[in-house]
Amino acid sequence: MPENRSVLITGASGGVGTALTRALHEAGWRVFAGVRSASAVAAVARLGAGVEPVELDITDEASVVAAARRIADAVGGGGLHGLVNNAGIIVQGPLELVPITAVRRQFEVNVLGQLAVTQAVLPLLRRGRGTIVNVGAATGRVAVPMLGPISASKAALESLTDALRMELKHQGVRVTIVEPGAMATAIFDKAAASAASDGYAGTAATRQLYARPIEAVGRLTANQKTAPVDGVVRTITQALTSGAPRARYVVGRDAGQLVMLRRFPQSLRDRLLMNTVGLKPGAFADDLASARQP
C-alpha cells in the first residue's frame, strides 16, 4: 500500500462507520467519510484533521456524482485506494405485510445505492489499484423468515460482489464482502422504529395471523447477544490492506453458525429457522382458521 492511502466510507456516522473511520484515520489513512446530514458532517469532522466529511446520500444520483467529483479533485492523480460500502438499513417483517415502499427503500439503500457509489468512484479505484469492501450480512447467505427484505437485499449484494470481483480482477481492483453477525449498534432500534412508522399492509385478519411471529421476532431481536464492532473493523482493515483479500469474510459466532446451516438438508434448515422465530407447526391454528373465514 502507498503511504498516502485514501478511502471512502459510506455510512460513516453509524456504529461501524464511526469506529472504522477512527481506526483508519489513526492508521494514517486519508478518510473521506460519507454522511447524509449536516449534523453528521460536524460529528465526523471532530474525529481528526485527516477525516474529510463528504455529504453523500447514496440513493440520490446527484449527491453520488457530486461526492465522486469532490473526492476526485482531492486525490488527484493518486486515485482512491479503498471503498467501503458500509451504509445500510434493515427492513423486517412478514413479506405479505411489509409495504412495498419499505421493500423498495431496502433495495435502494442496500443494493442500488452500493452499486451507484461503486460505479461513480471506480475510475479513481482503478487509478489507485484499490480495494472495494462491501458490508453484507450472514442473512445474505441464509434467508431468515420474518427478515425477508434484509435477507433478499444482502443476497443481491452478495451476487453483485461476486460479479464485480471477477469483472475487476484484471483491472487491478480487488473486491470482497464482509459478513458480520449482530453487532452492538443502533441499526436494530432504527429498524424497529421504521417498521412502526411504515406499518403493515393487509387486512386485520391477515395481520393477526402474523401477530405472534412478529412478537417472537421482537423478543429474539431484543434478547440477542450482540458483538462489539471491533471485530468487523479489524476485518475490514485487513481486507483493505491485503494484497489478496479473501472473497468473503464471516465475522462473529452467530454469523458463522447461520452460514453453517447451508450444509444442512433444506427441510432441516427450514425447521430450525422457523422454530427460532416462533413459527412452530400448529402454533397458529386458531389464527389461521380465522384468516380463512370469508
Throw out a few tags for this protein.
52% helix, alpha/beta, 7-stranded parallel sheet, 294 residues
| Class from secondary-structure proportions | alpha/beta
> Which term fits the overall shape?
globular
Number of helices: 12
**Largest β sheet strand count, sense and barrel closure:** 7 strands, parallel
Secondary-structure element pattern, one letter each = EHEHEHEHEHEHHHHEHHH
* CA-CA gap between termini: 67 Å
CA-based gyration radius: 20 Å
Strand-residue proportion: 5-15%
Strands of the widest sheet, in order across it, are 3-2-1-4-5-6-7
Instruction: Kindly state the number of beta strands.
Output: 7
The helix fraction, in percent, is: 40-55%
Query: Average pLDDT value?
Result: 88
* Sequence stretches where pLDDT stays below 50 over 5 or more residues: none
Structural commentary:
This protein is an alpha/beta fold and 294 residues long. Helices cover 52% and strands 12% of the residues. The protein has twelve helices and seven strands. It has helices spanning 15-26, 38-45, 61-75, 100-128, 148-168, 187-198, 204-209, 211-223, 230-241, 253-260, 266-276, 285-291, and strands at 6-9, 30-35, 51-55, 82-85, 131-135, 174-180, 248-251. It has a seven-stranded parallel β-sheet with strand order 3-2-1-4-5-6-7, sandwiched between helices. The mean pLDDT is 88.
